[in-house]
Design goal:
Domain PPM-type phosphatase: 157-372
Strand content: 25-35%
Keywords: Hydrolase
Number of domains: 2
Number of helices: 11
Strand order of the largest sheet: 6-7-16-15-12-13
Protein name: Phosphatase
Number of strands: 16
GO molecular function: phosphatase activity
């Protein structure tokens, strides 16, 4: 008798029952014992169970698995040994699968985890179950809109790794990032919307969707910026605008085209040195209806790390202190040298939090980190 594979089991399950379908498959077909699925919260402060309560058998092992994206064996607790298997899809760190192993080897578990991660990303658009696990506090309406607009929080393959984070996670207003991959072309945008609350979120939503509309029609980043500027101006008449940095990266060569339309800044870390990119600022998107933009060009080298930050990071002035600024940012970036991109953004955000010294941020913040490894060895069609 042929047993159904995990993909068949997941496709047959209701979207809100994927976790149970995976557990049943692993226990019946792979002979595993206990099974748990852990998902990260919006702030990336911890991993939280889908199947059980809030108890996590070995948080340290789960966190190491999530960070390293490698299988981690748990220390034995009460005579129980566990394997922690990363859940990832297209570079997105979806969560961690925790299993008490049976006859099936780690690679079989990892294969099942990969299939489940793809199914979970698809299911999140039609069920709220997994989003409820991820949120540890109520989101503001503005934050709800911003998180739903995001393309994800990580993306990558053998050529590059990309990661982004919004803060404060549960009340972010107008800051945002977007990206899209097609062949060797990676488009990245970071936005800083004018204003607060829902006004800022709606402004950013107009700009993001206008740029997506242009990009999906085959437009380059100049045309994306100009269409977004026209759309925002038509809606708000120049009273509101969106500071935006648009980047188009050629993953085969490292060539980068940029349109700097406002306040987001970019830094590049190379061979232990951190330098601010000297880009000529142009008008923010939406300030004028007939704004025209020009491309600036730069080049990445294999191993380079580029970080793009909104003004909520580099212009932060907690309790009247001097702005966080270039020096503090460069020091934080240097501390990320041995970290993957997804952990690097957390290091910079923690540095910013420490700079606030307990005072509440007066602006939201976004950080996007791009690591370019170099052209792929295998040609892509």
């Amino acid at each position: 008798m042929t047993h159904p594979d995990v993909g068949t089991q997941l496709r047959a399950a209701a979207p809100d029952r994927l976790a149970e379908a995976l557990r049943d498959h692993l226990q019946k077909e792979c002979g595993t014992g206990r099974v748990e699925i852990l998902l990260p919260d919006y702030q990336l402060s911890g991993l939280w169970p889908v199947l059980g309560g809030d108890a996590v058998p070995d948080r340290e092992a789960a966190n190491r698995c999530f960070s390293s994206q490698q299988i981690v064996a748990s220390r034995r607790t009460g005579g129980e040994g566990l394997l922690h298997v990363p859940l990832s899809a297209w570079g997105e760190r979806v969560g961690v699968l925790v299993v008490e192993p049976g006859p099936a080897g780690p690679e079989a578990l990892r294969s099942a985890a990969d299939v489940f991660a793809v199914a979970l990303r698809a299911a999140e658009s039609v069920t709220d179950r997994y989003r409820r696990v991820r949120r540890r506090a109520r989101l503001t309406m503005a934050a709800e809109l911003q998180w739903d607009l995001l393309p994800g929080r990580c993306l990558g393959d053998e050529r590059f790794t990309l990661a982004g984070q919004l803060e404060p996670a549960y009340s972010v207003c107008g800051d945002h990032f977007d990206w899209a991959l097609e062949g060797d072309r990676l488009t990245v945008t970071v936005l800083n919307g004018f204003g607060e609350g829902m006004d800022a979120a709606l402004l950013t939503a107009v700009a993001v969707n206008a740029m997506r509309n242009a990009r999906r029609s085959g437009a380059n980043i100049v045309e994306q910026a100009e269409l977004a500027s026209e759309a925002v101006y038509a809606r708000f008449g120049g009273t509101r605008h969106v500071a935006t940095l648009l980047l188009e990266v050629n993953l085969a060569t490292g060539a980068v085209e940029a349109v700097d339309a406002g306040s987001p800044k970019a830094v590049v870390a190379r061979d232990g040195l951190v330098r601010m990119l000297d880009l000529e600022q142009q008008l923010p998107v939406g300030m004028f209806g007939d704004a025209r933009y020009e491309i600036q060009r730069l080049a990445l080298e294999p191993g380079d790390r580029m970080l793009v930050i909104s003004d909520g990071v580099h212009n932060a002035t907690p309790a009247g202190r001097a702005p966080y600024g270039d020096a503090a940012l460069a020091a934080a970036v240097r501390r990320t040298r041995l970290q993957p991109a997804a952990d690097a953004i957390g290091t910079v955000m923690r540095s910013l939090e420490e700079y606030h010294a307990g005072s509440e941020p007066t602006d939201d913040a976004v950080i996007v980190c791009l690591d370019w490894a170099g052209p792929a060895l295998v040609s892509r069609v």
